[in-house]
Amino acid sequence: MALEDIRSCKLFLPDPVLRLRGVIGFGGHSTQWALWTKDGMAVVYPCHAVIIVLQIDTGQQRFFLGHTDKVSALALDGNDVLLASAQVQPPSMVRLWDFQTGGCLSIFRSPLHTICSLSFSRSGALLCGVGKDQHGRTVVVAWSTDKVGLGGEVVVLAKVHTDFDVQAFQIALFDETRMASCGRGSVRLWRLRGGVLRSCAVDLGEYCTLELTDLAFAQTLDGHWRPSAGMLFVCSHSGHILEIDHQRMTVQHVRRLLPTQPSGVPLTEKQSFSMGSGIAISSLGVSTTTCAVGSEDGYLRLWPLDFSSVLLEAEHDGPVSSVFFSPDGLRVLSTTTSGHLGFLDVPSREYTVLARSHMAPVLALSTEQNRGQMATVSLDHTVRIWDLATLQQLYDFSSSDETPSAVAFHPTLPSFFCGFSSGAVRSFSLENSGVLVEHTRHRGAITSLVITPDGRFLFSSCSQGSLVQYNCAVARCCVLRVAANMVCQDGHPNPNTLAVSGDSCRLAFVGRSKCKVTVVESDSLNELLHVDVSTLHLASGHPDWAVAVCFSPGNSGHLLVSTSSNKVVVLDAVSGHTIRELSSVRSRACASLAISEDARLLLGATGRTITVWDYPTQASPSCQVYIGHSEPVHVVAFTPDQQQVLSVGDAIFLWDVLATPERDQSDPGTPPVHEAGSSVGQLEDLASGASGLPRQQVPLPSQASPPPLSIHGRPLEGGTFSTSDEEGLCEENHVSEVFLQGQAPTPPVLVEKEASGAGDGPREAAKGSQTLAVLPCHHSQTSEWSLQRAKTGLPTRPDSYKHFTARYKASTRVKSVSFPPVGREQLRLKAVVGYNGNGRANMVWRPNTGFFAYTCGRLVVVEDLHSGTQRHWCGHPQEISTLALSEDGQVLASASCCGNTAARCQIRIWDVPKGLCQHLLSHHDTAVQALAFSPDDEFLVTLGDYADRTLALWSMTTYELLSSARFPEPVHGVAFNPWDANELICVGTSAITFWLLQHHGTGTSFQVHREPVPEELGASELTSLCYGASPLLYCGSSSGQVCVWDTGTGHCFLAWEADDGEIGVLLCSGSRLLSGSNTRRLRLWAVGVVPELRRKGSSARSNSVFMERELTLDGAVVSASFDSGMDMGVVGTTAGTLWYINWTEGTSTRLISGHRSKVNEVVFSPSESHCATCGEDGSVRVWSLASMELVIQFQVLNQSCLCLAWTPPSCGRPEQQQVVAGYSDGTLRVFNISRTAMELKMHPHRTALTAIAFSTDGQTVLSGDKDGLVAISHPCTGMTFRMLSDHRGAPISAIQSTNKEYGDLGVEGAELWLAASGDQRVSIWASDWLRDRCELLEWLSFPAPAISEAPGLPPPSLAAFCPWDKATLVCVGLGAHEEVVFYSLRQKQVVQKTPLPFFAMSLSLSPGPQLMVVGFAECMLRLLDCASGTTQDFEGHDDAVHLCRFTPSGKLLFTAAHNEILVWEVTSP
């Protein structure tokens, strides 16, 4: 225990008041060092500055404390007498410890600048160290340590400087004067004689270039080391194992370990370097009969000494950094670079994890009382949940895109909240490890999270100074208030910048500046107190600011503020008057404060130490200071039971509190602390021994696989909807798993009843089956319902791709749009490019009438397959999930999910001939999974998704809800019986359900019969269904089987393997069955023999069912429609493609296709014959502008195409038109359209390209990247001849060039070009590239937009030359307000401002009439007639309109939202 005695502080009993109980962590500087004790019962390893001895069987820990920096090397002698350790801080200090007592015997400064390796002789009389001197040269030092235990000093025997590399060094156990080392290209044998250390190289021959990584001496069969029988094994990074006779200094055998070696095939003794990639070996250990090898592929492998085959292997979650055999050779200790420590028990073949660790500093922690858990977040991008009782790891959430920075447990609900560097705040469930809700109201990294003790409110702050208040009394918390510029804008996470009082009534925080501390009411945020910290110490002459705040417990009414002047100021929380001050004995401010519930102890995190004050003492309170951490302590906290203290920084320390009201402060059971020295005030010499009894069990991590976090750069997939409480809350984004919370009244659940005979249903109930009764639904009798309600819970998405999940959208739609008068629209929607592969059964086709419809976003597209013309049915507020066409083809039903403008799903009933919406239906809460019309078109059944789980029956005559029911489990599909309009069937996770409609006067009810999934299908689920010839029903399963049911008896009589994956689509007509699955396969089956097999019953075999045809498409099959003969049809896939299928010819032809991901740019050929688009899927697609058919596609794998440009009309001949594309890896590619080939690839940027343009003559390419650099390149030669860094630090958002037609601008040049960047700056340049001239004409800087705390990305900074006045710039996103700014280059000033309803996301100006289009994140676009000053608003997109482009003639307008492309025709006003 490291305890400092400070003269200015009075001691308080007990002394010490804290005792180290346990440490969670491993490594720190290196994960290479872990050693066995002589008896093999304990393991010695470092954790940053602490050395831990862990007993394997009992899990007890004891500690060696005293190092002030991370431990860089460890060595233990063969008798467990001396332990040597070195620390990183140069010049490297070495400590020798009495291993049994834990006392420090000697501290000496080594002649090495840094030590990377230590090795003890077997007797402990000789210690060797390897490291670097101040000039980076390798140094080997030998010390004599035989007198240390007798009070003597350590003596340097020899020191050698070498020029060769040393990666491993070991003293031979059979001779203490002999050593061996290996490194890059060398193996050297050493000998110490007469005070001189000499070495000789082993001739490696052709292996002299190997990168050797580790070595080990072999043992004899009796377990001892003798020079006559011992061999030296050396391993390499290339997989070679060298067996060296150290007496003859020759290489005896060379073997190479390959990743995959057939069993029984011996490895040759010599293999050339060209025989493939070997196992990258990082460490090896040798016992009497085996060799353990650790490699960078994460495997620990056990080989015999002839390396003929692998005996045993254990896979780790990271590269293995070291392996060590126990003395008996039965256990192999292994460490990994990911911070795991464990051992493999060879006889039992079991692997045990001993320690698991964060691999970066821990930023915050939170504890939970009911479950006894602790959560920590770290810079290693992980969130970990630990059991406080055992310190075992329970969960491990990780994300590569963002760093968790704050965490807080809910005091009453089984959930916790986590803040991230992206500004997101997410709530996680402790029951299913899933994300409950996500909020993205912050623009900066989250710095602190705090929740009131009563669990009503959650508060979060960010580095941009925003404070957000949430209502977290329910599982699905929501935002109450967003206050900008409230909290100090400090980019460093600090859990103590926010604090709540014990009565949950007050919130304190540092802000608005760092010199201010504010106290507000927690419910209303009304200000109660404002304290200026800088005025508390005017006499000091130095400015002071607040670092952390903390409320005292109980009714004391104190507010504690830690200041930058190393003081803790105790204020009256009501008046703000100073009550007293506590001085920190360390020259560091307290980054974290914590006070015990009895107000007895106050903790402070002071740099790398922990300070404990006797809080009740009014005058000169005494304090104690504890060391152990090698990095600053970020958080200190008491456990919920107040019996222990937690401190986190480089690792997680758990301290026992020895002064509690419940026990005697003397605590006779406390063992003495081992002291390293008696000189007071020297930090290194204090408390170096092991302290007290360690905890009874080692913190073993959970052996189960940790649940994934699924953290993305953007919010998680899921729907968007709006919710409000009594006060009218703001809109929020939620994942679909929480949709059941807070919705409309839950429909009745199906109530199971015992089967009561044949009279109760349409058929006799089978033995063991269940009948379910559902009462009719009358609106007038709603209040009289007495049915059992479904228990509200958090639904889990089933493992089935059949269920629709709305694509996440950060945008929010406006609730009302002022459309232009009918007939006066200046834009008319002409075409939609793309099909929504995210939908399910969202395409219909009737061959007899030619009616063909599909969905794209929230539009229903009705297309004539002969002419290609489209009609667009608008009205859905959100993304459409599914479609259904009535039997007579006169009515179409479409369903959209809920969202921020629709609390429930909307079902629209369309009149097909007129194209008009007849009626709106609403019942489901989350999403509609399926729609189905009865064969007589009298009824419509609607099925909710896995979160909704309701089935509703509607009258198509009155559009009234006839009946509804709720399922106990998710249901995947529904279908009406084509021969009986009163019967329908559902398939789901565990059963198939038969429904019989019973009409009673004006009421309708269901008689329900359920049959379990057949045992032949195993644990699979029924995911699809279709009727065949009467009375057959075909069902597809999640395991790829098709089973056939007799609907008359309700039994399954046949099943066969139809696919390798889940079958999501089934269609049957006559003797043919079509199946489509998530394996992208479409198969046609001959099932004409099935009716005959039905007569055989249970003896039927599927041998007579055979597959006629098979096609593989580009995605999972989600929709299909075929003619009556199943010869031709249309199939939709998740890739966003609609295929025309002709089984007769065995062909598939693309009908509709589009980008699978976000469309980033649209450009046009000068003649307007073609257009090109690029997307984040890495594709560049060229389309025919007349038909919008895909002509050419260029695909680059594993990259995103972010920008695009077409050669201008002044460039060469039309047949030599080129397209240049910019990619996320910083490359430019030039594609020749006529030759359909890539002509050139350039790499002028190191980061992703964000904007690109041709010069006006087409001979130069201007490109901008994410870092703000602009490159000027020749597309013919690929040479980049100029790089401009004026915009460095902000991404380039727009580049445009135009002819310079005005000579009065005061600069020379043939053309003008501009660059706009994300920091609201625009530069305008005049250039003549042929003469290598480029001159800055104008530099414009605008104030940052005053953006509200709304979800989504900030608006881009866009600028363009005005086509009708090229000396004028048109800018959006530049300035503090929502407006279009016109800037004159002649007058050098803003000449016009046009207000906008929202901040613009995209901009385009027509080169024809004076028209301008602006796209908004609110899913709408505005057309501005700059000549007349009129505006018109238009809708159609399902997401933010991030792209607008007029064609060169101005006759067409292309707009894009994510992957949707809408083509508008520009009409005359």
Features:
single chain; 1469 residues; six-stranded antiparallel beta sheet; 1 helix; 0% helix; 47% strand; globular; disordered N terminus
How would you describe this protein?
With 1469 residues, the protein is mainly beta. The chain is 0% helix and 47% strand. The protein contains one helix and 117 strands. The strands form 29 sheets. A six-stranded antiparallel β-sheet has the order 60-61-78-77-76-75, with no helix packed on it. β36 and β37 form a beta hairpin. The radius of gyration is 37 Å and the shape is globular.
Query: How much beta, percentage-wise?
Result: over 45%
General form:
globular
Strand order of the largest sheet: 60-61-78-77-76-75
Please bin the fraction of helical residues.
under 10%
Number of beta strands: 117
Structural class: mainly beta
Low-pLDDT stretches are 1-10, 261-276, 661-794
Chain-averaged pLDDT: 83
Q: Give the distance, in angstroms, between the N- and C-terminal Cα atoms.
A: 84 Å
Structure at a glance:
The chain is an all-beta fold. Mean pLDDT is 83; it is low at 1-10, 261-276 and 661-794.
List the topology elements:
Blueprint: E1 2-4, E2 18-24, E3 35-36, E4 42-47, E5 50-55, E6 61-64, E7 71-76, E8 82-87, E9 93-98, E10 104-109, E11 114-120, E12 126-132, E13 138-144, E14 155-162, E15 168-171, E16 178-183, E17 186-193, E18 196-201, E19 212-217, E20 232-236, E21 240-245, E22 250-256, E23 281-286, E24 290-295, E25 299-304, E26 312-315, E27 320-325, E28 331-336, E29 340-345, E30 350-356, E31 362-368, E32 373-378, E33 382-387, E34 393-398, E35 404-409, E36 415-420, E37 425-429, E38 435-439, E39 446-451, E40 457-462, E41 467-471, E42 478-483, E43 498-500, E44 506-510, E45 516-521, E46 527-532, E47 546-551, E48 558-563, E49 567-572, E50 578-583, E51 590-595, E52 601-606, E53 609-614, E54 623-627, E55 635-638, E56 644-648, E57 652-657, E58 720-721, E59 732-733, E60 751-754, E61 770-774, E62 827-833, E63 843-846, E64 851-856, E65 859-863, E66 870-873, E67 880-885, E68 891-896, E69 906-911, E70 916-921, E71 928-933, E72 939-944, E73 950-955, E74 961-966, E75 971-977, E76 980-988, E77 991-1000, E78 1003-1012, E79 1022-1027, E80 1032-1037, ...
Antiparallel strand pairs: 1-54, 2-57, 3-4, 4-5, 5-6, 7-8, 8-9, 9-10, 11-12, 12-13, 13-14, 15-16, 16-17, 17-18, 19-20, 20-21, 21-22, 23-24, 24-25, 25-26, 27-28, 28-29, 29-30, 31-32, 32-33, 33-34, 35-36, 36-37, 37-38, 39-40, 40-41, 41-42, 43-44, 44-45, 45-46, 47-48, 48-49, 49-50, 51-52, 52-53, ...
